[in-house]
Hints:
Shape: globular
Mean pLDDT: 78
Radius of gyration: 18 Å
Low-confidence stretches: 96-100
Order of helices and strands: HHHHHHHHH
Distance between the termini: 39 Å
Strand content: under 5%
Amino acid sequence: MAISVLTAFWAVSLLFVITPGADWAYAISAGMRGRWVMPAVMGMLSGHFLATLIVAAGVGSLLAGHPLALTLLTVAGCVYLLWLGGNLLLSPAVPEAGQAGVQESGPRWAFKGFCVSGLNPKVFLLFLALLPQFTDPTSNWPMPVQILLLGAVHLCSSLVIYTLVGYGAKAVLSTRPQAARLVGRVSGMAMISVALGLIYGQLN
């Protein structure tokens, strides 16, 4: 693939990644919990990677042609985002509680991160619409390999931005419990807004 194509895709991918949404809200939540930023980020990246694999395998086109399958995916994602957002809204994380969660663990945060991105149909539909546009049918590289390479570029951008967001939240809010509580509630509202927006899109 041409470097110019990869660069163009990276620019578009970066615009997507730097736009605050459910992923940002989850990274901020992990940052305020102290040491769970990397598990949370890796979980979210695994969800993006799954979407890349689905599109590369051609399953994405198959699912896109079946509205019921996409509707079920949307409902599952919305329910999960509403649950996470509601928890953040009602019980926002504060720095003092960052080390205390008895039931918290790296795998648990990673799994929740995977669900945040893996059950988000916006991620899947974006990849389905975006990745093939930057492939070259005349290239010697097979189409699935090209899509996987583009997905890897996106994952690198996501890793950098989400990590900065998570650790940035930890650094800025670690001594500001009131601000942390406010940001937690705003993050919860962001997740709920994303879920409601997806539901509205399905109804219209």
